């Protein structure tokens, strides 16, 4: 049996190539030259005595064994990072590097309130933020690219632990005067399915809005077009339809300078849970709970 053990660097190169499906982009993501990355993967294949990647001029194709090795490599790299985290967690809490993914329907509205205070009170914390849709953020978490994720629940997260930050109410936003004399709360039955504008797939707010309305025909008729809440607001302000907005966005002033009115959505399940999540059994769990307390205080 071979006694050769892959190096961490070789596994990182292999994972980068799998994620980028291109040698040049993988090398750029790994901060090495393309020749260095390619040579590292070839050495890995040579020493293992197998082919992991089929190469051609236009296509990078992983063999079935290569895909299996990549899946295992993700776990090995994640365990390696957690080994370093054990040491870091034993020192001063909320210090050193921490990579947090944040979804776009939270980042521009919550973070400006929190980051200045966090920088002042936790000067040793180097917080690296990455804005990603919910599905990509959870993928980053389980692949070790993110240490924790700030997102809205319910959403399929896999095996994670969580700390709730707040509850965020959903509002219906519509051009002023449409409808005339709107009620204090908008029942889902008042929403014209042909006029509803929502975020594209991958954004959990779309699913939260549809679930809260509990009208199957909305899923079939709503226009999934917006790439951001600011885009949706501009479309509503131009009379193109109505949309759903979280209260935190309204409180942050997203409707300032528009002729848009907003009312709470009436019914059950009309709030989303803002939560910080991290991988189950993470050695930094206590640190993430402390970070959640800091986010609540914001």
Major sheet summary line: 9 strands, mixed
Fourth CATH level, the homologous superfamily of the largest domain = Periplasmic binding protein-like II
Please work out how many helical segments DSSP would assign.
11
Helix content: 40-55%
Name the CATH class of the largest domain.
Alpha Beta
Looking at CATH, which topology of the largest domain would you report? D-Maltodextrin-Binding Protein, domain 2
Q: Kindly state the number of beta strands.
A: 11
Structural descriptors:
298 residues, alpha/beta, Arc Repressor Mutant, subunit A, D-Maltodextrin-Binding Protein, domain 2, 3 domains, 11 strands, globular, WH-like_DNA-bd_sf
Describe the structure.
The model has no long low-confidence stretch (mean pLDDT 88). The chain starts with 7 loop residues before the first helix and ends with a helix. It has helices at residues 8-20, 23-30, 34-48, 64-89, 107-121, 134-142, 204-213, 216-221, 229-237, 247-251, 285-297, and strands spanning 53-55, 60-62, 96-102, 125-131, 148-153, 160-175, 196-199, 223-226, 242-246, 260-264, 271-279. The strands form two sheets. Strands 3, 4, 5, 6, 7, 8, 9, 10 and 11 form a nine-stranded mixed sheet that branches. Helix content is 43%, strand content 23%. The protein has 298 residues and is α/β, with parallel strands linked by helices. GO terms for molecular function: DNA binding; DNA-binding transcription factor activity. It comes from Aurantiacibacter gangjinensis. InterPro entries: LysR_HTH_N, LysR_subst-bd, WH-like_DNA-bd_sf, WH_DNA-bd_sf.
